[in-house]
Here is the input.
Amino acid sequence: MRNRYMSAVTLITLLAAAPACAQTYGNGGYGRYPDRDRGYAREIERHAYDQGYRQGIEEGRNDARHNRDFAPSRHSEYRNADNGYHRDYGDREYYRRTFRRGFDIGYREAYEQNIRYSRRR
Here is the structure.
């Protein structure tokens, strides 16, 4: 009798906990639930940063080679900042901030490197 009682209590406890787990770790993507696995969040953050960084390098190199002023915000890729974004990633604004941070750094590096090169010629 005692084993049946313990089994019933265990089952009820597990069933009661299941909806809470589903709410915290459900299909929502990063940014919706603060308790979400940080490994996944870091992967999304790295993806956004890398997308921005690569795009920034391309635009910075182009601007320097064409003797344009240093202005990362002139580019629609910077303003939109959602290249590579997918709704499963969660918070779009967080993705955009991370993308722009990568874009700024990539743009600055490429612009400065290429502007020095173009002045030496």
